[in-house]
């Protein structure tokens, strides 16, 4: 539960980030953020702690201390930060899987996660780099078939060219399977208002 994300809004109510629960609580305690509820009401740490007493346990997450329980917020609003920071998507295994939708980028199959590999389109032995534009998910069969060769030398093709994903696509994918309607409001607004030149 402590690793579940909390959506962060800047002072202009724009979705800018997803942080951990401990980070969100720390920002609340320091009075650098307020909790935002589904009806757009805001609460500082003390008022949120008082309200948490009346929030039903079913379907909600709580942090317990010896003297009180605190409902884990879904969304926080930064009280002093109004810029839009550069949104960086970390180049890691999880985000490659999310970008490629757990699908082999050569044959289009969706095997179990353990049977997917990360393939370098231009192999490292031929100068290929480990970067967004040169790695794709491949099933074990396609990866073995491609081996250390270049695509022009093979009867294989990519379903789409790999590129760095937009940060909102990662957030939207993270929301799947979660009942976070309050996130949806702000993420949808950020998605439709995002500058298309952004990475």
Task: Explain the layout of strands and helices.
Elements: E1 5-9, E2 15-20, H1 21-29, E3 33-36, E4 42-43, H2 45-52, E5 62-64, E6 69-71, E7 75-78, H3 93-99, E8 116-120, E9 135-139, H4 140-146, H5 167-175, H6 181-193
Parallel strand pairs: 1-7
Antiparallel strand pairs: 1-2, 3-4, 3-7, 5-6, 8-9
Folded structure, characterized:
Helix 5 runs antiparallel to helix 6 (181-193). A five-stranded mixed beta sheet has the order 2-1-7-3-4. The chain is elongated, with a radius of gyration of 21 Å. The protein starts with a strand and ends in a 6-residue tail after the last helix. The protein is built from six helices and nine strands. A hairpin with a 4-residue loop joins strand 5 (62-64) and strand 6 (69-71). It has two domains: 5-87 and 168-193, no CATH class; 93-153, Orthogonal Bundle (DNA Binding (I), subunit A). 27% of the residues lie in helices and 19% in strands. The chain has 199 residues and is α+β, with helices and mostly antiparallel strands.
How many distinct domains? 2
Strand arrangement, largest sheet?
Answer: 2-1-7-3-4
C-alpha Rg, in Å? 21 Å
- In quaternary terms, these chains amount to single chain
Report the sheet-strand fraction.
15-25%
**Model regions low in confidence, pLDDT < 50 over at least 5 residues:** 195-199
Helical region count?
Answer: 6
Helix-strand sequence: EEHEEHEEEHEEHHH
Give the overall shape, derived from the CA principal axes. Answer: elongated
Helix proportion range: 25-40%
Structural class: alpha+beta
Number of E-state strands: 9
Largest sheet report: 5 strands, mixed
How far from one another are the termini? 30 Å
User: Mean pLDDT, as a whole number?
Assistant: 84
């Amino acid at each position: 539960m402590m690793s579940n994300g909390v959506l962060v809004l800047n002072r202009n109510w724009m979705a800018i980030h997803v942080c951990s629960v401990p980070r969100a609580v720390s920002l609340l305690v320091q009075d650098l953020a307020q909790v935002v509820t589904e009806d757009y009401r805001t609460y500082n740490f003390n008022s949120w702690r008082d309200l948490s007493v009346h929030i039903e346990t079913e379907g909600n997450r709580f942090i317990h201390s010896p003297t009180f329980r605190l409902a884990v917020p879904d969304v926080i609003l930064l009280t002093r930060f109004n810029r839009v920071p550069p949104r960086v998507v970390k180049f890691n295994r999880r985000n490659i899987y999310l970008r490629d939708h757990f699908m082999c980028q050569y044959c289009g199959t969706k095997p179990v996660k353990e049977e997917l590999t990360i393939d370098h389109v231009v192999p490292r032995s031929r100068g290929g780099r480990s970067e967004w534009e040169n790695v794709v998910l491949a099933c074990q069969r396609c990866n073995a078939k491609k081996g250390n060769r270049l695509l022009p030398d093979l009867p294989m093709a990519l379903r789409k060219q790999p590129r760095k994903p937009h940060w909102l696509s990662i957030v939207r994918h993270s929301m799947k399977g979660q009942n976070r309607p309050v996130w949806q409001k702000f993420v949808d607004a950020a998605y439709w208002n995002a500058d298309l030149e952004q990475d």
